[in-house]
Batch of 2 targets.
Target 1
Amino acid sequence: MSIAPAALRLAGTVAGLVLVAAQTTTASAAPPPRSPTPYTAAWSAPLSTQGRYIVDAQGNRFRLKAANWDGAQGSWTGSGSITDPANHHAGQNSNGIPLGLDRVPLDGLLADFHQLGINTVRLPFSNEMIHSTTPVPDNAVGANPQLRGRTPLQIYDAVVGALNESGFAVILNNHTNTSRWCCGVDGNERWNSGQSTQQWADDWVFMARRYAAVPRVVGADLYNEVRRDVLDDPNWGLGDSHDWYAAAQLAADRILTEANPRLLIVVEGINWTGVPVDGLPHGRPMLTPARTLSHTLVDAHKLVYSAHFYGYTGPHHSGATGVGETHDARYQDLTREQLAAALDDEAFFVEESGRHYTAPVWVSEFGIGSGETNAAARAWFGNVTDYFADHDADFAYWPLVGFAGHDDWALLRYDTAGHRTGILDSGDWRGAAWQHLMSAPSTTGPVAAVPVWRMLSTDHGDAVESLRVRATGDWDAGAYKAACPDGLRLIGLGHTTGRGLCTDAGAADLRSPDAGQTVVVDERYVPAGGDWASGYTKLQCPPGGFLIGYSLRGERLSAALCAPGRTPLSGTGRTVWFDRSDNRPSGAAGGDFAHGDYKGQCAENEYAAGIAFTTRFGSRPGPDALLCRTLH
């Protein structure tokens, strides 16, 4: 969400938060009403990923050409009377529902959205909205009297249903905890600011279930602009209560296993860490931590990463003026080349093919005001939209709807009589850049399948991403366990970090569909004369089996998890040692899946059939060698 540069507040505690008594959330769905204007879309749900691209149910590229229809996340700025529009962002009281329903009939809004050319709507909500039992005032839905008497969630239902019927893809976005304008130090800094991670994940399961029967609800955008509060930073992988990596992993797997396996899971990078004072560490990590620690979900084709870019912020600039302002460059201060380098470094490296982090990158927020007169800001908007066009990027403009005379950032602005102005008008200077972005050449049609590479991390707990393995229960009680997502096989291991690498390169889904799995804890499957790691303990799969997982007790290897192949597996073998140095094929795909550790990896035309380790004095007890066999 865009914030006024002066809105970042970095001292003192946040006061005056609106706390609404929670109602009990249930899993029952409230079927959204139909829109009066059905629309035949040229794509089919659900969406999934193929390398750096999002694809539809037919395997065709679906580029997210999106905008943010805000309001349901809240608009109150946190001070003064909540009933006074002057105390709401840009003087716009959203009443906790998507903006514009007081001014334009719902089908009229959707018709205008189609004129923009967008195909997707990012639809923010707050956790407070989910639990509110108070109907919105009648004037909040003045142009849509059929919505009178409904709670914010019920109106959200109606909006979701109308967007679905009109052919738009809908991505649910948990924007705030409280219904308050985001994104300074405002009590909404983290997913668990003012609530537990458990409650946050429970709310996500509730929302995903609620719209599971609405086909064009295609994604769950887990949380908006995770950032520092007064005292603490979020982190990516430390395993504590501020670990955004772990929280996103937890919520994503719960959504896919308990609520709706059809959804894309959108994980935004960390928006801000540190205190913005010259001389102290501070900046926007964005997606850079994914280089060495990326997410692996139970469905290897559902992960999308996202990032936000605004001209008045910067790689190390909070976007503030006055308090919180530093001498770091803003994005609008960068040359065209410097901006491209920053975008590559902070986000778009994720789209590099053949890496454990490879995924689509969605710039789910960017924008600028139609009244902007600063030449640098205007140049930035042209440069950033050119970059998105040249890189065939997925994007979502902020915001979609606003009030005339209030929010000149909005693509479409409506006065109290429902008359529209905005980027579709010839006088809007943003129009040329917008049209270039919307019409630039883009990949379309079928997207060829590419190998999947995913990492496993047992840094702070289990990483069992196979649904088939989960269904068998705890296969090594007391140990940290890791298993590749269904359809992938284990192909690499770290020596001391407990990290692993999974892939389907060279062979899609080797596992037999009707057989079980074997937990190997000793050398019983090592054949006579088959000592491929002399002097080391060898955990080898049964004949015809291959590695899909492993477990650790501390640093020590505990067990190997093997699955039988769907076809005979008996290729020639070789030993890949990695106890004293890296041992991966030249130019190996997958990337640095065990950063700072020695790594071993089989070739793409091989599968791993065994792991060797030692417990002799003075040696590390982690994996030392892999038995790699050819696939064919």
Target 2
Amino acid sequence: MLLTPRSRTDRPSTSGTPDAPTIGPTAPGVTPRGPRSPRVRAALLASAVSVCLVAASAPSPATPLGIGDRLFPHLGNPGYDVKSYDLSFAYTGKNTEPLAAVTTIDAVTSRRLDRVNLDHAHGTVGSVEVNGSPAAFTNAGEDLVVTPAQPVPAGGWMRITVRHHSDPVARGDQDGGWVRTKDGLAMANQADAGHLVFPCNDHPSDKAMFTIRVTAPEGYTAVANGLPAGVVRASGATTWTYRTQHPMATELTQVSIGRSTVLHRTGPHGLPVRDVVPTKDRERLEPWLRKTPDQIAWMESKVGRYPFETYGLLMAQATTGFELETQTLSLFERELFTQPAYPKWYVESIMVHELSHQWFGDSVTPREWSDLWLNEGHATWYEALYAQERGKRPMETRMKAAYRASDTGRAAGGPPAAPKGPRPGQKISIFRPNVYDGAALVLYALRQEIGQPAFERLERAWVAVHRDGTASTADFERLASSIGNRDLSGFFQAWLYGRTTPPMPGHPDWRSDAPKAREGTR
């Protein structure tokens, strides 16, 4: 998932009975909210990023590169495969001040590199080393272009160390990166925003291991992805270290710094579950948090064992307009759990939406951003299935409504597996309704087509075969055809790429409304 905003019309009513809300397409863990001011909406949706890099001289010309992603062609960089990141941040106690940071990247080159491009577009850079030697650097577009003292040969091990400042204050109408909370900071790096926090190869196809160190003054607590790997206290400050035990995409990085309490409990199979909450709210939030172990067990009953070393919820005191499936520590707005207008079944289904992303999107990561429907369609599917089984909200009712809106969604944002590009200045606009309920509708049609037993085998096989890796729409089609024991290429071509919605298997009476509005062609 990227940032996952939702339109006002998708939000539950705040004036009716608890059963009144009609829940619209769910964004990647997005939760509906109250009205946003134009200023807040603009800050969430716009993405013009101003670059502030202090650059040393480097041979000219330096040019931005990319790996050619259809939706973000300049995202990612060719020529190397990152194996690990070591991130260090020093927080001053004020979330308006830049954090002193060191980013160390270990990578293997796939070709000789005279220059190395990193995605980086916010914050000052002081120095760069490649394999222990000072390197020249400059900026080009949203790239930090590094020129090593000696070219790095193909197949060589490369260590890049960047000393920089990570600025939590957005410049222009920056989209993503650090989220400033009432008591500190959190991260929201989806889809194209990790490089606003630290230099990286910012594309989900290049997953890596992470070590994250955070130093903060006394009174603050820092938590990051993975498991604790040490705490050091000295001179009125504390340094926390966390390490992942599974590879992770840069968009899923999470660091929480705040006046927080970490609550611990045990999930299925002894899984450590830890939640990060504002200390003053720990008792108020506990009734929600204690639901997580059972939700994990429910998901395991559907798709198999939880894929990571830990899980938990990060309750942010911030107005974001979304929830986010950052790996092992999902980001939630505190308001979701304290606003009485949201019915219990709805809040729980949103918790399951983000939890299910740990399998679909985090463990099995999209190979390119056009594969986003695999993340959001599955998260929406299990959100709706949980609401049916635990909240008595029939799946068929929701899918019939999604079918009715499907042609409008395809016209506005493109088919599920061929979404239109982001609107100018709004990178997160790729998260349109048709990659949520529209994509879940494809899964419903697939279950109708191949039958429930085969569909359930497919779901388990998908997350098992591609665990800790990346996968594409074509991979899903091949696996579905194999398990369904038939050629499903025609089915997927129509449902994933068609301009109009095909007839629903088993429901010939379902109709889709004529499109009401269209975005400009992109």
